[in-house]
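Request from the bench team (R.T.):
"We need a structural guess for the complex before ordering more 2-acetamido-2-deoxy-beta-D-glucopyranose. Sequence and SMILES attached. Just send the tokens back."

Command: build protein-2-acetamido-2-deoxy-beta-D-glucopyranose structure.
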Amino acid sequence: MLFQTYLILHTLALAWFAIGTPVAPDVNIGTVVNLRIEGAEKTIFEGPIFTRGHNVTTVAGGNHHCDGTNNHENPRPGPTCTSALDSAGKEHGFTFDGTFDPEFDDFFITRIGDSPQTATQFWGILVGFEFTPVGGCQQRVHLGDDVLWAFDAFSKNHFLKLAGPVTARSGQPVRFMVTDGMTGGGVAGARVVASGRGAGSQVSDASGHVTFTFNARGVHDLKADRDDSIRSNGVSVLVV
Ligand SMILES: *[C@@H]1O[C@H](CO)[C@@H](O)[C@H](O)[C@H]1NC(C)=O
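Reply to R.T.: structure attached below.
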């Protein structure tokens, strides 16, 4: 459904160009991003989300625009990191709060789900494993961006990234790799937990590798974590 909406909007956008519109259309067509929200104790959300720039309302901050034109960061409205957060919350039933800073013309997110900031732990925003240079309503996002909201983002050693095969044969060992999403270097000592009967967990070796042998057929979901790091993206492997 989401993707269909995207296709329709995308087609509309193409139609604009097809009829030779001399200037870029000033419409906020929205896009689909890969959104991940890593809370204090668990992943709050991970998945694709359709979002467009729109007004966001929080208890502490009130109702304000959140479409990339905040603080004159972009000339035209469009989807942003915080609009994606808001879209996901509405669709998947979690809430968040944030104060509004008139100077930056942006929200400062103070809680997502059950993870409020503390005196020393704050929420951070990354796109493609890089901290955004501006706030969440100023930072525009584009189709397929990996948008990450991370609790206690500023005191962690690594933002873990997990990679591996999408299919595996039952009874055959398969290798996954844990890296630091910012540097690409392997991360040792991360715990990779796999869902599904008998799959268990493994700890990454010195080069960041873990090897699983799945016996139960079907989909297993894997995710890596380490005490001093932001947990990884999930990887799903289909065992046949
Ligand atoms: C959206 O927020 C702006 C302030 O940023 C306000 O002026 C405007 O009235 C709001 N629009 C809606 C539809 O609430």
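Two things stood out. Residues 2-22+30-155 form a domain with the Ferric Hydroxamate Uptake Protein; Chain A, domain 1 fold (CATH 2.170.130.30). The two ends are 28 Å apart (CA to CA).
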